[in-house]
Design goal:
The complex is a heterodimer of chains A (385) and B (514). Chain A has 385 residues and is α/β, with parallel strands linked by helices. Chain A folds into 2 domains: 193 residues; 163 residues, GMP Synthetase, Chain A, domain 3. Chain A is built from 13 helices and 13 strands. In chain A, the strands form 2 sheets. In chain A, strands 1, 2, 3, 4, 5, 6, 7, 8 and 9 form a 9-stranded mixed beta sheet that branches. Chain A starts with a helix and ends in a 12-residue tail after the last strand. The N terminus and C terminus of chain B are likely disordered. The longest helix of chain B is centred in the middle third of the chain and has 30 residues. Chain B starts with a helix and ends with a helix. Helix content of chain B is 46%, strand content 11%. Classes of the chains: A alpha/beta (385), B alpha+beta (514). Chains A and B meet through helix 1 and strand 2 of A and helix 11 and helix 16 of B.
Chain lengths: 385, 514
């Protein structure tokens, strides 16, 4: 008798495992209002303005995908989102959202007010790309027509995806933002977006990064600086190195394509508790554009070119770190986090005063550029005249 | 109840009249004509010897059941023309005829009525002789039979092209020809209280498990049915798990397949009048084995077998998974796919679940119609089916295009292994209902239930999932793939346990080296 009771009980638990974890809401795909992207602005009286790009699909043999924009205000983000039902009819479907664009104003005030709902709600996904608008409003960025795609948000997402062969903006998904927000010894940089005129119309361009101090925006980095920061953070997977140095005797700059990069940050703690960081950058590049009569098939010449470029890169990185230290004073490179990993005892002592220490921490940058090839040609183009 | 009573009446009447042959020829003929009254296919041909007029004979047979040429030349003609006066004892004329006159491979003197009845009804001839209360039963089976042709149910490109026919003796011959061994045994019995259908249990002594044999005989003994018109009757009467959609008794129309199963230690049941020979025990893995697998290159054969087994998963699961993802878990779809499905669903009035149910039903309707139709009409059905399914229904926006694709895909996949057709259709519907109620969890739940069921089923004591649950030892050699012959040195476990070694020669190793 007792065993039967246990059998029934365990069966009920077993069955509930399936029934309770299952989704109960059957809904047809065409009833969904799929949100491709969302822009969040500040409105009057502390209200939020949420603009969503909703995909519109016309069926039939030649189906067409377009998008429309719905803007609504609310006391909170969720309030604004729900208010959209009052005139869009369908409930918004957030699982396929690709980008969240936050306006400068909100970012300056407090990012948390935006991302908390987005991260907490069960229908949204935390793997959306986060963007900070450099324009006046985020709405303006979202509402531009896309250049090549049908839907602006998807084009923004593609642009971010292809940043790996450009390395002029970081990639930050919402969960990563929250991770870094909660982590010690590192602060966030988020890709920045602005509008650029192209053939009589504006389209969004993702360049540079927004620097955060905890959840507050404190400034922007330009694209060059962003690349330098990415070098330090070991997030460079592609992109170009441009050697503008005129001492080579070249009339035009040399473009080198980055194929692989490895950066190591080593915290060094000296006896008198002075913290230093050794940064070793090791980059593999290929010459992709070179003008002039340089016989780069020669080993000596190659060595000279690579040494020159390494020096160049070192200067750039050092300059960048100095600038961040003096201008922003926040650890966007994650030096603190690295120290915490490698030397938790020391970190414990300095954790509370890390922001101040970071401003004066000394950094030793060493760079190495390996030129592995020169594209399809091994000789420069000769003019025959 | 009424049928049972009739049966009993019939038996009783036979008993009453038993052994009532008398010495008068006329009386005996009348006796048989009385038994077979209103049956005008009974032929009674009277004749007498040229030299001995007292030797009056009569052959009794059923028209169409006998080989008349053989009867004329080997029975009637010798009796007519032989000089029975010379050197033959008149008192023992019947025996003399049996031993010296009639040319027949199988002949027997009898006065047992039951024996006479079953002989004449299966196409033998009864020879009655004036003055004897016994008769001669002369083998003369003949009449129309179907030629040995390639079976439609299992065609091959490579391999033997003969198939079983409706004649039990032909079928046994086909098996015998494959296995030239004195240990191949044939045990006859009769089933069906009206039809008296011959069935034959066929096995290889020393390979077939005695326990399974005993169990099979026990189950056959328990059958009390009026008629056996096809082996399908027996299949359902002796099977395990009677309510399961899965087959627990195997069948094949191919002698080579049956021979192979006998050689693995299985037992075959040949039923007169059915070209389908049953085999027990039967495990799930056999559904994915085709005889051609064993004749083709093993890599190609393994590929085909993987297709078949994966095909079953797709055939049963695809509609359910599609339904679950499209109606419950849209976040699992890649965005472009979501958009294209959405665009195809624009303006479609029915929910996805309903349209899937409908289309699967339509597919099976067309399949069933095309199976029963004569070939020319079947083609017409196909054309209508393709047009209605493929184009019109999508253009009219009754269902969306992806649903058609899913239905067609699932429909084609399920035809990859025809023996599992029934269970696939049932299971697919079950999964679909589960998925429409609970999304992907429903499908998973359904799968778990199906697996639990399959793990419970046994066929004659052998686990139904034999070989599917582990890859240990030689279990996996002939399940998902077909291992090369030189590596399959052992027979399958449990079934072939009495003599596990299939090949002990090291030919494979040697030829591999060379």
């Amino acid at each position: 008798m007792k065993s039967i009771k246990y059998l029934i009980l365990s069966n009920m638990i077993f069955l509930n495992m399936f029934f309770l974890t299952g989704c109960w809401n059957y809904r047809e795909v065409e009833k969904l209002a799929v949100v491709a992207g969302v822009a969040i602005d500040k409105g009057k009286n502390n209200q939020f303005i949420v603009t969503t790009e909703v995909i519109q699909i016309s069926g039939g043999r030649e189906s067409k995908t377009t998008s429309t924009y719905i803007t609504m205000e609310g006391k909170s983000i969720f309030d604004a989102v729900r208010n959209q039902i009052s005139f869009a009819g369908k409930k918004l479907y957030w699982s396929h959202t690709k980008v969240v664009i936050v306006s400068k104003e909100i970012a300056r005030h407090n990012m948390l007010s935006v991302i908390d709902w987005y991260n907490r709600d069960s229908e949204t996904r935390s793997d959306v790309n986060l963007l900070v608008s450099r324009e006046k409003t985020a709405k303006k960025v979202l509402e531009q027509r896309a250049l090549l795609e049908d839907i602006n948000s998807f084009e923004l997402a593609d642009t971010l995806k292809n940043q790996i062969s450009l390395s002029k903006a970081p990639i930050k998904e919402l969960w990563g933002f929250i991770n870094d927000l909660e982590a010690q010894g590192i602060v966030n940089i988020v890709p920045a977006v602005h509008l650029k005129k192209n053939k009589n119309m504006y389209s969004p361009q993702i360049m540079g990064a927004a620097v955060f101090d905890n959840a507050k925006l404190i400034g922007f980095l330009n694209s060059e600086e962003t690349q330098e920061v990415l070098f330090v953070k070991d997030e460079v997977k592609g992109g170009l190195l441009i050697d503008r140095d005129k001492t080579n005797g070249l009339k035009a700059p040399i473009s080198m394509e980055i194929f692989k990069n490895k950066t190591k940050i080593e915290p060094v703690v000296s006896r008198n508790n002075e913290i230093k960081f050794n940064i070793k950058v090791d980059t593999r590049v290929d010459i992709d554009e070179i003008v002039g009569n340089v016989k780069y098939a020669n080993e000596k010449v190659l060595k000279k070119l690579s040494n020159n470029e390494a020096k160049n890169l070192k200067n750039r990185i050092e300059h960048c770190i100095k600038k961040v230290q003096s201008e922003y004073g926040v650890d966007i490179f994650g030096f603190g986090a690295k120290l915490r990993e490698d030397n938790p005892k020391v970190w414990k002592k300095v954790a509370s005063s890390w922001n101040d220490r970071f401003k004066n921490v000394s950094v030793n940058v060493s760079t190495k550029v390996n030129i592995k090839g020169s594209g399809l040609f091994s000789e420069p183009i000769k003019m025959g005249d | 109840m009424i049928r049972k009573k009739n049966l009993l009446d019939h038996d009783q009447s036979l008993e009453q009249e038993n052994s009532s042959l008398v010495k008068s020829l006329e009386a005996n003929i009348e006796f048989f004509q009385k038994i077979f009254h209103d049956n005008e296919t009974l032929i009674a041909r009277k004749f007498q010897n040229k030299y001995l007029p007292e030797a009056k004979c009569c052959v009794l047979y059923f028209d169409g059941m006998v080989d008349t040429q053989k009867l004329n030349e080997k029975v009637i003609q010798p009796i007519l023309n032989t000089n029975l006066n010379e050197g033959l004892s008149i008192q023992h004329l019947l025996e003399e005829l049996e031993f010296k006159v009639i040319v027949s491979d199988k002949i027997k003197a009898s006065n047992d009525l039951n024996e006479m009845m079953s002989s004449i009804m299966t196409g033998d001839t009864i020879l009655l002789l004036q003055g004897f209360d016994k008769c001669l039963l002369i083998s003369s089976k003949g009449g129309p039979t179907r030629a040995i042709v390639e079976p439609d149910s299992a065609r091959v490109i490579r391999g033997p092209k003969e198939g079983f026919t409706e004649s039990i003796i032909t079928n046994l011959t086909l098996i015998r020809r494959k296995i030239n061994n004195q240990n191949l045994k044939f045990k006859f019995r009769e089933l069906g209280e009206i039809t008296h259908t011959k069935i034959c249990i066929c096995y290889i002594e020393g390979l077939a498990l005695e326990e399974i044999m005993a169990e099979l005989e026990k189950r056959l003994d328990a059958i009390k049915i009026d008629a056996i018109l096809d082996s399908g009757y027996i299949q359902e009467l002796i099977r395990d798990a009677p309510f399961s959609p899965y087959e627990t008794v195997g069948y094949s129309e191919r002698p080579d397949a049956i021979a192979a199963k006998l050689l693995e230690g299985r037992i075959a049941i040949v039923v007169d009048g059915s070209p389908f020979v049953l085999t027990v025990p039967y495990v799930l893995a056999e559904a994915f084995q085709a005889s051609e697998d064993y004749y083709n290159n093993f890599i190609f054969a393994s590929f085909n077998r993987l297709l078949r087994s994966v095909g079953i998963f797709i055939a049963t699961g695809l509609p359910a998974i599609y339904l679950a993802i499209v109606t419950y878990h849209q976040e699992m779809l890649p965005t472009p796919l979501l958009l294209s499905i959405t665009s195809s669903r624009q303006g479609v009035p029915f929910p996805t679940a309903l349209s899937l149910f409908l289309m699967l039903l339509v597919f099976d309707v067309i399949r069933e119609a095309a199976t029963r139709m004569p070939t020319p009409i079947g083609q017409a059905v196909n054309i209508v089916g393709t047009l209605v399914l493929g184009q019109a229904i999508v253009e009219a926006k009754i269902v969306s295009a992806p649903v058609i694709i899913i239905t067609a895909f699932s429909g084609i996949m399920k035809l990859l292994s025809p023996t599992t057709l029934g269970s696939v259709i049932v299971l697919r519907l079950f999964f679909l209902i589960m998925a429409s109620l609970m999304g992907i969890y429903g499908y998973i739940f359904g799968m778990i239930m199906a697996t639990i069921h399959l793990m419970n089923v046994r066929s004659f004591g052998v686990p139904y999932m034999l070989g599917l649950t582990s890859f240990k030892n030689h279990n996996g050699q002939d399940i998902w793939i077909r291992a090369p012959w030189w590596s399959m040195t052992l027979r399958p476990k449990i079934i072939g346990v009495r003599n596990l070694v299939r090949q002990s020669t090291k030919i494979g190793k040697g030829s591999k080296m060379g």
